[in-house]
Amino acid sequence: MKSLKKLIAVVLAFALVFSAMAVGFAATPFTDVKDDAPYASAVARLAALNITNGVGDGKFGVDQPVTRAQMITFVNRMLGYEDLAEMAKSEKSAFKDVPQNHWAVGQINLAYKLGLAQGVGNGKFDPNSKLTYAQALAFVLRALGFKDLDWPYGYLAKAQDLGLAHGLNLAYNEVIKRGDLALVLDRALEVPMVKYVDGKEVLGEPLISKVATKAEYTVIATNAQDRSVEEGKVAVLDKDGKLTTINAGLVDFSKYLGKKVTVYSERFGDPVYVAEGDNDVVSFTEGQDSVGTTVYKNDDNKTAINVDDNAYVLYNGYLTKISEVIVKEGAEVTIINNNYLIVNGSYDAEAIVYNDVQSGDKYINRNSSFELKDPVTVTGAVSKVTDIKADDYIYYGKQYDVNGEVVGTVIYVVRNHVTGTVTEKSVSGSTYKVSIDTVSYTVSNGTVWDNLILGNKVTVILDKDNVIQGIASASETVEDNYAIFVEKSDPFTAWFAKVKLILPDASEKVFEAVYNDVYDKLPAVAGTIVTYTVNNDGKLNGITSAESKDFNGDYDAKAKVLKGTVNGQSVIFYLTDNTVLLNKTSDGYKALKLSDLTTTSDNALSAVVVVDEYNVAKAVVFDDAQFGGETSTIYAYVTGVATVYADGKQFTRLTVLENGVEKTYDATTTLTINKNTVVKLTLENGKVTAFDSATTVGNVKLSKIDQANLRIIDEAGHGYLLDPNFIVVDKDGNLKGLGDIKSDTVVNLYTNDVGKVFVIEIVQ
Questions:
Q1: Same domain, 648 and 503
Q2: pLDDT at 477 over 70
Q3: Exposure winner among 36, 40, 340, 641, fewest CB in 10 A?
Q4: How far is residue 353 from each of residues 377, 391, 413, 415, measured CA to CA in Å?
Q5: How many CB atoms are located within 10 Å of the residue 546 CB?
């Protein structure tokens, strides 16, 4: 379930990020830099910051080598020293091979005076010499403030540590081209500059701070989260908390939603870099529906978290306010700085889809509760509205703006069906369980549970948490026409052939029979349970004696089971609303409904039973069974015994734990029952008339507890089914839980007549 709840959050977050990436790096101003080139965004930012102007004729010169003069110009501009370089033009050239009218004389003079560059010896700078990869890294690292690095591997190692060399597969003495250098320079802009204090490196602001203006903001939304924000803009809170918009520039602000950031902008005000500030971020699963501005963690205490009254919420990918939505239980929540929430998987409603969604439909299920208000975002099993089909399970949500107006629809689609045979059903309090081909599932409600008939083959609809929400197609096991054979006509010839049967409603019917089809298949004994078929003319054209069992035992109305013996072997047969029930009395056959049957005891029933491979009874014919009164059986743990005298009678009063609930029962007489024992009580009209000790498996240790599937295994490898209403107690009768049972804990197991453990008693 957890794994299924995390998958929903990832899908929605991906959709959000994908849509938000419409704001990206702008195209470069150079004709030789393609938009999809690996260095395209790097060149775009360098150009925006006036660090490069290209090589002329509208080109950057991506494949041209870098000269030493070009490199020192790049370095000066990255440090914001362009004006100083202009001033240094008037200074006498520091190198004899750099004439006073050289285009880079000011750049080279400044770099020499600041210690950023040295000559090559003999008073020369060699400005037109092609720069190697290692030399380029050395220039950049010196600009960042690093000192005393060994040549060349000290520079190479430091560049690698800082991420400057990522993806560049160059030898240290290989000539570097301008396209590759653009990557190095662009990465360097985001590296903190270094100062040395007492010989130790101290990090400062990123290098980009030397050439860009900066401002502090909290990021609120791009156009992808709030359509009132223009394309290419981003909504932010300024340092005074005022909501405003700024250009997005070259930055993908969707990465910083809700966070405090420092935005660095170029000379025309467009952002070129964002540095994340100190942010308090907490993520959790919502434990219950939110109330007002309070959300709740899904922990044992449902810890409440109060957020700011005016907190923004990115609700299933769209910006709104906390006052406009309810954060549903199970949603994935991230709170940033207590004033911004990112909520995924919170929906207004959920439902089974009954009709394929067609193009042009305004609603799902033709129900105004599921209005398809554009734009509609569809995630999960499908990505388009028209791909939503009947028997899908959907989570439906409205998208709200900050004023509470509905501005769109979001739908998460689950297409999760399981087909199989219903093999087991149980209910514990308000929890309904069913097994499909032995795999246990929780069922959402009692109505669906009632419609899942034991022995039927079904296709069920599951939600994102694997809970059965409905039945897609319930094809009941093909039911035979059951009847009781009474007699055949005499003589039984091809010209005169009739058969009398008792039908499930206890009525007698005489069928004309197709002689050749049935004459040698008729039972020899009246009262035999048969199955039969008729043709289009209503004539009996098939009859087969059903494989039946002679049963002796009792009926448990609560569990709806026959418990007894067949040929000396213990059996349990399950009855359903589809079971054919007849009672043979001295007055003939009478039809029964399941609701007519009441609990019996003392081996009071004899019957002929036809069952399937799951021991589900298809037909039962009782032999003059007596049903009536209010007799029932319960299994309980006795916590108190008292002898009471009232109304001239003395009787026993029992206090018991029944299904984990303490109850009191009066007996019709005095009973010898000990406290802290497990018993089977027989009740008539609510009073105890008899009791038996429960079947016990004593002094065992459990090696495996599978509570989800109601199964346990002891250390000897014996497996037991748990009754849905099982309890765990200690030897003093105190309620405990399965968590109190460790690998070395000794327990007693008490089973009911169905063989399921209903009490686990911790001995030591």
A1: no
A2: no
A3: 36
A4: 17, 5, 10, 10
A5: 19
pLDDT(3) > 80: no
Q: What is the dihedral of CA 509, 513, 518, 520, to 10 degrees?
A: 90
Can you give the pLDDT at residue 9? Answer: 41
Is the Cα torsion angle 347, 349, 351, 354 positive or negative in sign? negative
Residue 451 located in a structural domain? yes
How many residues in total does the chain contain? 764
68 and 176 in a single domain? The answer is yes
One domain, residues 78 and 147: yes
- Tens of pLDDT, residue by residue over 539-572, are 898 999 999 999 999 998 877 899 999 999 999 9
Q: What is the pLDDT of residue 16?
A: 37
Q: Which residue has the tokens 């925006």?
A: 48
Same domain, 617 and 661: no
**Average pLDDT across the chain, whole number:** 87
Domain's final residue, options 414, 447, 465: 414
Please state, in angstroms and as integers, the Cα–Cα distance from residue 138 to each residue in 69, 166, 185, 202, following that order: 14, 16, 12, 19
Average pLDDT over residues 112-121: 89
CATH number at residue 235: 2.40.50
Segments in 91-215 forming alpha helices (H): 105-113, 133-143, 153-161, 178-189
What are phi and psi for residue 221, nearest 5 degrees? Answer: -165, 150
Which stretches does DSSP call E strand in 323-371? 332-336, 340-344, 349-352
112, two tokens: 């020499």
The secondary element (H helix, E strand) that includes residue 195 is strand 192-197
Rounded CA-CA distance 373/365 in Å is 14
Domain final position from 276, 303, 334: 276
Neighbours of 433 (CB within 10 A): 19
Tell me if 23 is assigned to some domain.
no
- Residue owning tokens 């340092």: 239
Q: 644-675: per-residue pLDDT in tens?
A: 766 667 788 888 888 778 888 888 888 888 88
635 and 584 in a single domain? The answer is no
35 inside domain:
no
Count how many domains the chain has: 9
Per-residue pLDDT for 2 more than 70? no
- Provide the pLDDT for residue 483: 95
> Does the structure show a pLDDT above 90 at 68?
yes
Rounded mean pLDDT of 426-450?
Answer: 88
Cα four-point dihedral sign 385, 386, 387, 392:
positive
Calculate the CA dihedral of residues 260, 264, 268, 269 and round it to 10 degrees: 10
Provide the residue range defining the domain that includes 569. Answer: 549-623
pLDDT of 378-420, one tens digit each?
A: 989 999 999 999 899 999 988 888 888 888 899 999 999 999 8
Phi, psi of 124 (to 5 degrees): -115, 150
pLDDT higher than threshold 60 for residue 25 = no
Output the 3-class SS for 142-170. HHCCCCCCCCCHHHHHHHHHCCCCCCCCC
200 shares its domain with 73: yes
Residues 236 and 264 in one domain: yes
Q: Is residue 11 part of a domain?
A: no
- Statement: the pTM of the whole predicted model exceeds 0.70: no
The answer on 66 and 128 residing in a single domain is: yes
Q: Name the pLDDT band for 630 (thresholds 50, 70, 90).
A: low
